[in-house]
Every structure is written in C-alpha cells, then in structure tokens.
Amino acid sequence: MSNLKRVKTSQVQVDGPERVFGKIFDDIGFNEVQEELFRHLVITRIIAPGCKLKTVDYLERYKGISIDISKIYRFMDTLHRSLKEQVEQIAFDYNKSVLGGKISVVFYDMTTLYFEAEDEDDFRIPGYSKDGKPHNPQILPGLLVGSNGYPIGYELFEGNKYEGHTLIPVLEQFQQRFNLSRPIVIADAGLLSAPNIKDFTSQQYEFILEGTDIGFGIS
Questions:
Q1: Same domain as 48, residue 7
Q2: What is the pLDDT of residues 156-212, one digit of tens each?
Q3: For residue 209, what are the β-bridge partners?
Q4: Is 0.90 surpassed by the pTM of this model?
Q5: Can you list the positions of beta strands (E) in the chain?
Q6: Any idea what DSSP says for residue 215?
C-alpha cells in the first residue's frame, strides 16, 4: 500500500481499452495497415471521441504516448491519399463476411463539413451548408454502408456540388472496385430529385427513399 501511495497519476497507463478494442481491431483485419498511428487513432476515437487535440491529450495522459498534433494532421492526408483503398478493402471484406458473403442492401448519405478559414480553393468551396454556415468553405463527405451500419467506403466532393449528383457515381465506383452486384439502395429523399429518380430507374437500380412512403422497383 505504501508503494501505491507514491504512484503519480502521470505514471498510470490505461491498458483495458487496447486489450478489448485492439482485439476487435485485429479481428477485423485492420492490423494489416502497417501504421501504428492508425491503430492509436481508431481505438482512441472509440474510447474518447473528440477533436484531434483531445486525441493527443488522451494518448499522452493515459497511454504515455507523446505525439505532436501536426503529425496527426499530416497522417490524415496520408490516410486519405495512400491508405484509403486498403482500409476500405478491409472494411468491405469484413462487412461481406458478417453478412453471409453477400451485400444486397446499402445505405448512402451525405453531410457537409465547413472550415473556419475563409480561404477557398478548387475543393473547399461555399455551398448549401447543413451546419448553417453558407459563407464558409466546405466539403461534402458521402458514406456508403451495408446492413447494420457496417461501413463500405466514403468519397469526398467539392463543397458546392449538388449531393444528388454523387449517388450513382459512388455506387458505380464501389460496384466496380468490389465486384458488387447492384444492391438495393436506401437513401434520404433529399438525395434524389425527379431527374435523379429517372436516371436511377433507367439504370435498373432498386431503391427505397427514406422519409417517404415511396419505394421503386422493390418486389
């Protein structure tokens, strides 16, 4: 007991989350990504979700790992440019395995992410903002997931792009990459204007619009 009294908080490290979520991380197959920082970011995001600065604070306080915030920002670029396809392939393979070897239904949705900086470029462009920040540069992330919310992949689009024009290109891209047969698509009604519905139907996609009582091509 006397020895324990001399232990400082800064000397205590948390091991349980790594044992639990690290095991899940490995079982999914993400340990194939040979980047230790990727592992730290994924597990920390589950345990203590927050901004990148809070991630740095958590790793230093509870894991004894000191990482400069700029290194994390640079790694996010690396993750998107160099590791994205590998991470998505692992996610898709696991998704397919837990769904019995076939992905027949997918969900697609988009949001907007704005930047506090006012500088624009060819990608960060003001547009319709779901955050109520129409004058701020933004980008549009689109996420495709399978049943039960298992992720398949994501794409990023220019901030002024109409979100309804992203759905079919994303579906076609992932169908080609993963040799995926045409799934039933569930999407928010706001993603599909009348012309988009016509295109969707002409390409023989089966789909359901959330937020309505309308289903097209569903037997």
A1: yes
A2: 999 999 888 888 889 889 999 998 888 888 888 777 677 778 887 888 888 887 654
A3: 187
A4: no
A5: 105-110, 113-114, 138-146, 151-158, 184-188, 207-210, 215-216
A6: E
Which positions ≥6 away from 11 have C-beta within 8 Å?
none
Interatomic CA distance for residues 199 and 197, integer angstroms: 5
Neighbouring residues of 43: CB distance < 8 A, sequence distance ≥ 6: 17, 18, 21, 22, 25
Within this chain, do residues 66 and 117 fall inside the same structural domain, yes or no? no
CA distance 52 to 57: 9
For residues 112 and 143, is the Cβ–Cβ distance under 8 A? no
Residue entry with tokens 């899940």? 24
What gap in Å lies between CA 56 and CA 104, rounded to an integer?
39
Note down the domain range covering 6.
1-98
CA distance 198 to 201: 5
Residue type, 55: T
Residue at a domain's end among 64, 98, 132: 98
Cite the DSSP H helix spans in 64-140.
69-78, 84-98
Helix (H) or strand (E) segment spanning residue 204: none
Q: What is the pLDDT of residues 77-135, one digit of tens each?
A: 999 999 999 999 999 999 999 988 888 899 999 999 999 888 899 999 999 998 899 99
What pLDDT shows up at residue 213? 47
Cα three-residue angle 43-46-48, rounded to 5 degrees = 100
Question: Is there a contact between 170 and 141 (Cβ–Cβ < 8 Å)?
Answer: no
Residue 26 corresponds to which tokens in the numbers above?
């490995």
**Cross-strand pairs, 216:** 207
